[in-house]
Records
---
Amino acid sequence: SGFPFVVMKSLSKLGVPSAILEFLFGWVDAHEECAKIPEAKGSVSAIRSEAFFIPLYELYLRYGGIFRLNFGPKSFLIVSDPSISKHILRDNSKAYSKGILAEILEFVMGTGLIPADGEIWRVRRRAIVPALHKKYVAAMINLFGQATDRLCKKLDAAASDGEDVEMESLFSRLTLDIIGKAVFNYDFDSLTNDTGIVEAVYTVLREAEDRSVAPIPIWDIPIWKDISPRQRKVAASLKLINDTLDDLIAICKRMVDEEELQFHEEYMNEQDPSILHFLLASGDDFSSKQLRDDLMTMLIAGHETSAAVLTWTFYLLSKEPSVMSKLQEEVDSVLGDQFPTIEDMKKLKYTTRVINESLRLYPQPPVLIRRSLEDDVLGKYPIRRGEDIFISVWNLHRSPKLWDDASKFKPERWPLDGPNPNETNQNFRYLPFGGGPRKCVGDLFASYETVVALAMLVRQFNFQLAVGAPPVEMTTGATIHTTDGLNMTVTKRIKPPIVPVLEMPTLKMDSSVSLL
Ligand code: HEM
């Protein structure tokens, strides 16, 4: 902002008309002239913390629902206001792109649905959303049950051995197993095995997360890519995943070519209900890089997010035993020894509220990233195109102005007979799955997934923070992680007494009637 501004001022003193100056220097920082958006001071050091959304919360309390953060030569707008968020995400969404996010994730997601913008996004969104139809999501509920059952077996062993367990990594494996089957019919079986492909997925994930918080993109330096052992490992992992994807696509393509099923709206192959199968049957080009990008995107989008939700839900429950008791009471009364069904989803009302509330306190991801594609007005402030914007969902969800007892874990704040809270009925103060045209396509999937896992786990076990474990603190990648894991002591619950069923008319009477 400095130098061009000085030149402009000098020209103005020399008598150059202001209309010409405005034309020539229109690109010079608009905020310099309007000087309205509050600017956070001392901001560089303020965000040099691991979980960067924490200092952003402090700055929000000081500077309000929109402020500018200067970070060396870069500057960001931090938005924590429901109506400005609604404007960016929904009402004027066409004026915003994914910006930095797309740049960071390009190496793994290419032009997959999360980073994609413009026409590519429009076409792919229209292809992918129908794949997650009602019948598909209902079929997934059984998969959630099976996968969670594997985790229960693992916990069973730990409970009888009296060993503490690190739940965060177990949840990560649970949701990886689920998303692999759900998206491309592949069983990572990561809860039982540590195969090369599982390690490759984690190498790539860790890289994506590190890049999203790294200040300088060193991976972009050409020679670095070739000599850095770490970057070579990332490249090898990507290749392994891509080769596996190619195989899965080929297998699926053969199945689709051989089957006689007609494609229709709620098309689903019972043997392979995966999203990939739907896409190929719908006529998606099996040879395209775009298909691979979208599969990779869903693998990542649907994996760490759900894992993080479960991790923080169990953390929150460990701090509020009264919520846990209420939860277990509901689960005991709804679930039997069968895997949960779609009907159970409607009955597990309190369980759902626990997840709703966990998503409020620990939104995944804690910030949404956008870049303005044109000049716009946010609230009362004009902004220029090219602004990088962070919408802090964390701030929205924890704002003392928007919530009573904002920092308290209180599932009761959501009435059991009320609607499921979402961005629309909460007027953009609650955005667990984003909002507007870029809203999560997996919201229902993820809600059922986390409800099934939570319900099955707390039905069978009690969970407590392990004695002597390090305090549970936060760090960020794309989602909120713990710094040292979530170490818990798991004990088997004593089964609730089986309540006898009402006396039925006895068989004897029946048979005597028939004998007559
Ligand atoms: C987008 C959250 C699970 C696929 C999003 C967004 C959020 C979100 C907040 C919006 C991002 C933005 O506006 O910048 C979550 C949470 C999940 C979850 C909290 C788990 C609890 C899933 C699952 C899938 C999925 C299971 C896949 C089956 C996607 C995709 C997008 C997306 C493809 C991009 C949509 C678009 O840009 O058109 N998710 N998600 N998510 N999510 Fe999810």
---
Amino acid sequence: STGRLGGLNVSESGGVVDAKNLRVKLVLLGDSGVGKSCIVLRFVRGQFDPTSKVTIGASFLSQTIALQDSTTVKFEIWDTAGQERYAALAPLYYRGAAVAVIVYDITSPETFTKAQYWVKELQKHGSPDIVMALVANKADLHEKREVPTQDGIDYAEKNGMFFIETSAKTADNINQLFEEIGKRLPRPSST
Ligand code: GDP
């Protein structure tokens, strides 16, 4: 299902429906151009379509997956759609988020530096039990790689994050990213 939000004042989710059906707010963070929108479109629509980018306002998409233990996870995905320029809005955006996906581009060391800024920001201001994933995107551009895989692994390990390399273009590891997040979500104890 797809819905477009006019602004940021939407009801906060981060919620859990019951022990078997989780519903979580997921935010994407990272420099403009690293492929956040493409990752979401690949996951939700199975497409790679760089031209369909939303240009104004936060876009909102949701997608439900089933995990092996028959739990379902409904991801309510928030994409900044260019709002990374407005740092002051960031806390509104990630408030209530159960998951933060922080993306960089393996061909751009600056975007890796920026990803580390977002990690620190979330450690300071995000939910204490937030699940964070560090995503090294554009893995298909290995000939232009400037950020070694090991640098991402080391940084993620130090910060208790899950790390994965993806390509929104080839679909490599996109579903795995969301499955791994699902597995790491805290489960409410069933009554
Ligand atoms: P955003 O600003 O972070 O949302 O980035 P976009 O999703 O708009 O992507 C920015 C550009 O990177 C677009 O031109 C995409 O075609 C390209 N792109 C995104 N993901 C990949 C990928 O995995 N591989 C390659 N080669 N290009 C990608």
---
Amino acid sequence: MRYVVAGAVLRERGGTTELLLAQRSYPEAVAGLWELPGGKAEDGEDLADALRRELLEELEITVEVGAGLAERVVLRDDLTMLARWARILRGTPHAVEHRGLRWVGPDDLERMARTGELVPADEVWVPELAAVLRDD
Ligand code: 9L3
Ligand code: MG
């Protein structure tokens, strides 16, 4: 089994919590849609290490990786995706591979889910993400 690990990167802004979304530039089917950034772990690679590596490559940020979100997503028979909470330790996110980046609150996130602006595979996380964004 291979794993894709995605980061639910949070920041605090003026007493509210925001989530980092990244706009995919490929493949064609999902180009323009927004996702939790991340990518495939190498065989045998620790999943937290894989997420730190992917976010450094894709966004030029160093993150602290926290707990996992509840849901896992089966992408293919041999490929499962999971998400971990993360916070930036160093750097400012830059869209190295993505078309764009944005920080969203719970209302933005839910609106984007309703209007089909999120990558379909990531929609399962919206209730948990929105709940934490409202709670914090
Ligand atoms: N994927 C879906 N949602 C995400 C991420 C990071 C990835 N939040 C899917 C898209 C690709 C596969 O996982 O089919 C590998 O991701 P990447 O290496 O192209 O980012
Ligand atoms: Mg990626």
